[in-house]
Specification:
single chain, two-stranded antiparallel ribbon, eight-stranded parallel sheet
């Protein structure tokens, strides 16, 4: 089985569970939990950097990557001053403690600013492009690696490819082969369990709204997604979750020719979700509701039961053969109708619904 890149959470029982898995965990990714650095989730709390150091030290083996993957930051973050120096101080503390191998970045302005202001620190850290760069061609790899070098960071040890390639085997194989020829030291990573719309048309705006919220602007991203974006679409057409580029635990082995690492997401959903999801992918099977393993669409598990083990054995073959013209196809709708069962609607405070009335 491919090793996993999993969320790190400041929960002692979950950390002990990961430590027991040994080499099955190839990397962890974690938030700084600090107002000076935005990542791709709305920040709900802050944690002292010394607490993070103590907890990260309990996982000595896996590589540790800090999430610096917010889409943008307040303007003063890019200038030499108090905010940038505070961030550099925290990164230096993590690096000196031996619990930081690199940054996962989505904001190239920030990467450049860090490289200019702290060149010695940058030279000790990998800079890993975020999956939200949508890397689906070798020339994108070349451009991003040039950027990393120009900013003075170490080249990345891993590279996450665009999610959509999970369902485009010919393109995935071609890019994987190109990377292994041109950059043989790069581990190829695929994101398995996000569970968002394929080629989500709301993604760029969603990333910007999260960055704005983390920058202090009042922004209810959950309500916006529910009322105007992907959650609205999945509520009206829940079968579209089968078109999402998810890699089920049972199907990981099919990707070993193209990838070196499988990434799992869902760090904001808590240790119970993370433990269940990591366990499923470690075991290579899951007997429960498939929706309970998905990050962005985890709320669908309140609305539907989609028994993973009841899905056809050739599901992946059917999905990989799909021509992706969803408007002219009924395959996913038929599969969902056959296997999914609606759950009873749960009463919530006025205006707070997850499942649309059926």
């Amino acid at each position: 089985m491919l090793p996993l890149n999993v969320p790190f959470l400041p929960d002692t029982a979950y950390i002990a569970y990961l430590a027991d898995l040994g080499p099955r965990i190839g990397a962890v990714h974690f938030s700084l939990y600090d107002g000076g650095l935005s990542d791709a989730r709305v920040r709900l709390r802050e944690i002292a950097v010394d607490t993070l150091v103590e907890l990260l030290r309990r996982l000595p083996e896996p590589k540790k990557y800090l999430l610096a993957n917010g889409r943008f930051h307040p303007g003063e973050t890019y200038r030499v001053g108090k905010r940038l120096h505070r961030l550099i101080g925290r990164l230096t503390r993590l690096r000196d403690a031996g619990v930081l191998d690199g940054l996962i970045f989505a904001d190239s302005y920030l990467l450049t600013a860090l490289g200019d202001a702290a060149p010695k620190l940058a030279a000790e850290l990998e800079a890993v492009p975020s999956v939200n760069f949508h890397i689906d061609a070798a020339d994108k790899v070349d451009t991003l690696l040039d950027l990393v070098a120009a900013c003075g960071f170490r080249p990345p040890g891993k590279l996450p490819l665009d999610r959509s390639l999970n369902r485009r085997p010919r393109q995935l194989a071609a890019l994987s082969n190109a990377i292994r020829r041109g950059w043989p030291n790069l581990r190829i990573e695929l994101l398995a369990n996000e569970g968002c719309l394929d080629h989500c048309p709301y993604r760029s705006t969603h990333e910007a709204l999260i960055a704005a919220a983390n920058g202090g602007l009042p922004m209810d991203t959950h309500r916006l997604n529910r009322d105007l974006a992907c959650q609205r679409i999945l509520n009206r057409s829940p079968h579209r979750i089968l078109a999402a580029p998810v890699i089920r635990p049972e199907d990981m082995g099919r990707y070993t020719a193209w990838a070196d690492l499988i990434k799992l997401c869902g760090r904001t959903l808590g240790p119970a979700f993370a433990t269940r999801t990591v366990s499923a992918y470690v075991e290579g099977r899951f007997d429960g509701n498939l929706l309970e393993l998905l990050d962005a669409s985890h709320w669908m598990a309140e609305c539907w039961d989609l028994p993973n083990r009841s899905l056809p054995e050739d599901l992946l073959d059917r999905l990989l053969a799909c021509d992706r013209h969803c408007s002219a196809c009924t395959e996913c709708a038929a599969l969902f109708e056959q296997h999914a069962r609606p759950k009873p609607l749960t009463l919530r405070p006025m205006g707070e619904w997850h499942c649309a009335p059926r």
